[in-house]
Amino acid sequence: MPPRLAPVTDHDALDAPADPEITAPAAASDAKLLLIDGHSMAFRAFFALPVENFATTDGQPTNAVYGFTSMLINLVRDEQPTHVFVAWDMSGPTFRTEQYAEYKGTRSAAPDEFKGQVPLIQEVLAALSIPHVGISGIEADDVLATLTDRAERQGAEVLVCSGDRDTFQLVTDRVTVLYPRKGVSDLVRMTPAAVEEKYGVPPGRYPDLAALVGETSDNLPGVPGVGPKTAAKWINAYDGLDGVVGSATAITGKAGESLRANLAQVIMNRQLNGLMRDVDTPLQLADLVRVPIDREAVHQVFDALQFRVLRDRLFDMLPKDEAGTAEDVEDLAVQVTDLVPGALAPWLAAREGQELGLDVAGTSAHGTGDAWALAIADGEGESLAIDLATIGDADLDVLGAWLADPAAAITVHDAKSTSHSLAGRGLVLAGVTLDTLLAAYLCHPDQRTYDLGDLTVRYLKRELPSGVDAASDGMLDLGLDGDSSGGRTAAARAVAVRELGEPLRADLATRGATALMGDVELPVLATLVDMERAGIAADVPYFTTLLNEFDAAVERAAAGAYEAIGRSVNLGSPKQLQEVLFDELGMPKTRKTKTGYTTDADALADLFARTEHPFLENLLAHREAIRLRQTVEGLLKSVSPDGRIHTTFQQTVAATGRLSSVDPNLQNIPIRTTEGYRIREGFVVGEGYEGLLTADYSQIEMRIMAHLSGDAGLIEAFRSGEDLHRYVGSRVFGVAPEDVTSAMRAKIKAMSYGLAYGLSAFGLSKQLGIGAGEARGLMDDYFERFGGVRDYLTGVVDDARQEGWTSTILDRRRYLPDLTSDNRQRREMAERMALNAPIQGSAADVVKVAMIGVSSQLRLRGLASRLLLQVHDELVLEVAPGEREEVTELVRAQMAAAADLSVPLDVSVGFGRSWRDAGH
DNA sequence: ATTTTGACGTA
DNA sequence: CGTACGTCAAAATA
């Protein structure tokens, strides 16, 4: 029976016109051919990705299609092959089964979920214009071997992607096998050296080795008692399998006996595992050249498969969208004019109503700053550089008025820092309509930095002129020779900022974040400027006393610890502690870390409970004391000359949308322990104010969860006004609310909060110190009563997997590509992030809206009270004399009204002379 | 000299 | 095998 081309052959793809974007290699020797064993890789993909997580809404499983396509996109992106081809196995007999009926006989039938996916993969390949063929009676590997030979003879480089080790025999200097180690994303490059290293024989003799050792997956038995080591030894000693067979009688020992008994099998193995290199197929290298994808078909197929994330990745990879390669990036065109006295007003007048870019060279920290130069750029690449050291009074007045004009329409990168810098020169920044830093953050909230130079390359395909991409507050800008080099630097940055406005606005719109930027992030930024500038008053004498006290406690604990073991060690060194605890004192080993065994507080407390060794007691006391001392020391160091501590709120670091606080971090001041709580007494009301007011949301994340899930029981819990955990506990345990014991309440509380973090039954049992069974039962009971919560939690992850992102009540997105990773660790991590991001992020949205409401009400009513701090669900204000009542009401009202949820937002307020007194 | 790790504070 | 952060000192690495 002559081999015939199978129906899956996609001749249309072969006939497609050459892609103008992909230039065919001038000679075959420049060609790079990617060959894929379709079934082998599809099968790997099927087992790498959990089938229950990958299905279209009508139930068609797609995990193999997804994994295969994902692998293909990655390979094409990373390897940049000029030619691609996929070979398929066909059902029915092959020359191997004819020769040996048991060939591959141990293979169980493919799962039903798998079978249907192969035609879908073929549809994807058709849309991608990738030729793919199955030939009856011939295995895919034989087709690949034949094409490998043909391509290699023409001087091409070949990559063979297959999970079948028989392909190792194809490896040469020009042929590399990509063999999946785990899943389909972790491919090992099998080069001649790699094969030799792993098996001890060159690639050409791999089939010799396999014939001796056997191949379980093909149902080819090897010689009993002969493993890869012995086989390699023989093959090398007798110059190949023929030599081994010929000298079989000369091989001594048990293994030799075994070999002689199985010679026939070995010889047949070798016949079967040798790949055919002369399959009769008309396919030539030239037929496999990459051609343009059929965009329309890709959209259709990917729509049907509901692959959103993959589609984006695919289109991102295509040459057309691939701009940003080094040779494409030119310098940004900038025309700089140094300010001539009197020229500012006409320059601005000529650009009345236009969006202008601003960049300021200066510094900022601790709620203040300085500026020495700035530049304003228009949309034509013209930039006006202004040296603030030499600017005349008239121009300064014009500049000040323009900056302070709310209608000025200014785009700037990092408006918060810029505001502080300008404030150092008495200038106010008001008319910011876009902050490119914030915009980049909203579009890519997981990124670590949003450097202006990087944005320029990414969005404009332009490079900032050399020496300019450093932040404008660098000392380089000082212009030591007295010229306005600070202004020159600012000039280029201002142009970049101005030009970034358009693509970033478009990107914000695409991602549904326009309103979030305009209504939340920019207004809250203005509030943060005021908060950072205000700072919070510190009671320095009190902190100093506290420092001494903690110091003494550190000494005491250290002395106690040294006495307990009869020598001194560095108590802050986990390494030395491990020596003491596990080697010297012989205590039971704790949980493992990368470098040994943990000495964290939990583990130490556990060890103390078991051994009651006084060293542990002192060590724990030392840990606490040294930490408190450290905290107080840090706070004292950060007190500004005005006697206040000015933290910096970071608006673009937390991927969920929260703020963070640095230098110092005022969002992690102790509160749980009584000793730690004393630190809050050092944060006090400032001169001229009446007291500090704290207002916090109670259980805001649980309320958000109730709202998002729409779970009737949970909503009712909040509406009833009953203690939440007591209410939930009564439902879960089936008792009256008043019969919920404190132990029951504690369990419920831990579980309720844990759910929002993706807590597992295992984690819950660990945390509560209960059995895994009890924890599992507790969770089952919980979900039994609050099924809406479970439906929400699973739904949110599934939706995120489909869409590629999660979103909050104000449409703040977090992108989680790892939801489709075939690495379980990464995937499950992303799943927990997907559970938490909408909850934590929505809470962050609500608090930001509240901050905007509070600060605008304070301003509208002409009150002197002011916001000082935000600690995620808590606001701290400084209240001016006589304003306490009005501010309390205003804060309550604004916070409660910050979001319209299906449950009330409960706010509790406290007042006092210190943060401690104001707490509750 | 700089980066990574372990530990630990907050929501 | 529970999310999001920042800070410090020690350890690891250059």
From TrEMBL:
One of its GO terms (molecular function) is 5'-3' exonuclease activity. GO terms for biological process: DNA-templated DNA replication; double-strand break repair. The keyword Magnesium does not apply. It comes from the Bacteria. InterPro entries: 3'-5'_exonuclease_dom (IPR002562), 5-3_exonucl_a-hlix_arch_N (IPR020046), 5-3_exonuclease (IPR002421), 5-3_exonuclease_C_sf (IPR036279), DNA-dir_DNA_pol_A_palm_dom (IPR001098), DNA/RNA_pol_sf (IPR043502), DNA_polI_exonuclease (IPR054690), DNA_polI_H3TH (IPR020045). Residues 31-291 form the 5'-3' exonuclease domain. Its EC number is 2.7.7.7. Residues 335-509 form the 3'-5' exonuclease domain. Residues 676-883 form the DNA-directed DNA polymerase family A palm domain. Keywords: DNA damage, DNA repair, DNA replication, DNA-binding, DNA-directed DNA polymerase, Exonuclease, Hydrolase, Nuclease, Nucleotidyltransferase, Transferase. SMART domains: 35EXOc, 53EXOc, HhH2, POLAc. It catalyses: DNA(n) + a 2'-deoxyribonucleoside 5'-triphosphate = DNA(n+1) + diphosphate. Signal peptide: none annotated. In addition to polymerase activity, this DNA polymerase exhibits 3'-5' and 5'-3' exonuclease activity. PANTHER family: DNA POLYMERASE I, DNA POLYMERASE NU. Belongs to the DNA polymerase type-A family. This is DNA polymerase I. It comes from Serinibacter arcticus.
